[in-house]
Design a protein that fits this description.
279 residues; single chain
Length: 279
């Protein structure tokens, strides 16, 4: 009759021993509380941490349409893009007028000249267009205000947010190339100047500027172009000023009003989509 009580006593003792062992065991790893970011130049708080998270180790690619046919494509050259890397605090960052105004003023620079958002919007206008999704984008070249030239493959998935874009550009300008996720294919690559060495032989290079003397209807202008003659559109990606027209074959104005780079590129893509019947 005493055995059941003995069994219960052993079970109770075992539970007490297990509880004591748990109390004596070292605590499980806990996530450390992030330390507050260091202040950098007044309004640059936390920017170092944001840029670090925004850096991209590899870029995703979009599926390329394959139909076995060789079709004409468009090439874009974006000139004078404001993409300059500066050391703010401990981090290398793409300088911009919103986050680094105090830093730029201390360096005797005009914050209004630092507008990397312009090139970001311009690239999204190209890569989001039906023209690109239909596989008719041939190449994109960007030249910075400092003269650094880089190529962007037409099947890149561009970062949607501005901070991730700045992290990508900072990494590109320091490492000189960005590869695809899990591959060695260079999606963004710094190349040697001039850009004309990478353009197809016989390509028609068209510069667009509000200051150009020749005014055209863009849809008619594009419709009259020959498909055997590749079209290269040169557009400025800066806040003020105009592009260098020395290497262009034609220099045109497409609107009676100044247009942003993104708006101008939207018009070009729409005209090409109409010409090539891309719905």
């Amino acid at each position: 009759m005493g055995q059941p009580y003995a069994v219960k006593g052993r079970k109770k003792k075992r539970k007490l021993d297990e509880a004591a062992a748990l109390d004596a065991a070292p605590p499980a790893e806990e996530a450390e509380e992030p330390s507050p970011p260091e202040e950098v130049g007044g309004e640059d708080k936390g920017e170092e941490e944001d840029e670090e998270h925004a850096a991209v180790e590899g870029l995703p690619v979009v599926p390329r349409p394959v139909d076995g046919m060789r079709r004409p494509g468009a090439i874009f050259v974006l000139e004078r893009a404001c993409l300059e890397v500066g050391k703010v605090g401990k981090a290398m960052q793409i300088l911009n007028s919103d986050d680094h105004a105090n830093y730029l003023r201390k360096q005797n620079r005009n914050p209004a000249d630092y507008r990397p958002d312009i090139i970001h919007q311009a690239l999204l206008a190209i890569f989001d267009s039906p023209l690109t999704k239909a596989g008719r984008l041939q190449a994109v070249y960007v030249r910075t205000e400092k003269g650094v030239l880089f190529e962007i493959k037409p099947y890149v998935r561009m970062p949607r947010t501005f901070k991730r874009f700045c992290g990508l550009m900072s990494q590109l300008l320091q490492k000189l190339s960005i590869t695809a996720v899990g591959k060695r294919d260079k999606l963004l690559n710094v190349v040697k100047n001039p850009v004309t060495r990478y353009l197809p032989v016989g390509a028609r290079k068209v510069g667009l500027s509000f200051s150009a003397e020749k005014s055209v209807n863009l849809s008619d202008y594009v419709a009259k172009s020959c498909d055997d003659e590749p079209l290269v559109f040169v557009v400025g990606a800066m806040a003020h000023g105009k592009i260098d027209k020395e290497y262009t074959d034609d220099y045109i104005q497409i609107c009676n009003y100044p247009l942003s780079a993104a708006c101008c590129l939207n018009r070009i893509c729409s005209a090409l989509e109409q010409k090539w019947n891309i719905q």
